[in-house]
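To start, one record:
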Amino acid sequence: MPDSETPSTATSSSGSQDTGFTPGDDTWTQWRNVFAILSGKMTDKGKEEFRVARDIRNEAADCKRCEDQRDYLLQWSPVIRYLSDGIRQLGGDLSSHNIYCRRCTNRKAGGFDPEYGILLCANEMKDQGHLEDTMAHEMVHAFDHLRFKVNWTENLRHAACTEIRASSLSGECRWAREFFRRGQWKFTQQHQECVRRRAILSVRARPTCKDEAHATKVVNEVWDSCFRDTRPFDEIYR
C-alpha cells in the first residue's frame, strides 16, 4: 500500500474493509497507526492487524528476551525451582530443552502438552513477572499430568481441577495482579473469584464443553477438593 495513503482510506490486508490500519514497518507508519488507535479511527480488526504486524516484526527480539528470562527463572525463581523439583521427583523433566519461547497467534500466554512440554508465547509476555506466572501455571499442569494421570481430551472434571490448581498456585490470581492488571477491585474473596473465573473460561474453551453453564457446573463440582489441594506446596505460595 502506498505510504501516501491516509489512515482514513487505508484498507486491511484483505483489501476490502476499511480498518484504519496502514501496513508498513517504517517509524512514520507506526506512528500513524498509533495515532489511529488513540483517536478511535482504527477498528478492532485493524487493531488485531496492527498487533500481528508488530509481533512478526519483533519476533526475534521477543523470543530472545523470553528465553533469557526463562533461563533466569529456572535458575533463580523459588517457585519455578520448587515446581521443577516436584516434577523431577515424579519422573518428569522440564528445562530449557522443552520449555519453548515462540510467537503465538491465539492470544494466549502459553500451554502445556504432555508429549512436547511447555509453550511460552513470547509476544504475549508483558514482563518477567508475567512470564514467571505463566511458567508456574503450566508447570502445575505438568505436575498434575504426572501425579494424577489427567485425561486432557475427554474428562472435563480433570481439566477443571488442574485449571483451578494452576490458577490458584501459580500466582496469577494474587491480589496485586488482579487489582492493577485486570481492574478487579474487590478486597474480599478476590483470589477465589479469579481462580473460578479463569477455570470456567478454560473449561468453556474445550471442544467437549457445551456452553458456559456447563463449564460452570463442572468447575463447581470439583471446586472444594481441587481448590484445597495445594500439592506440591504446603499452602498457596504466591
About this structure: The chain has a mean pLDDT of 88.
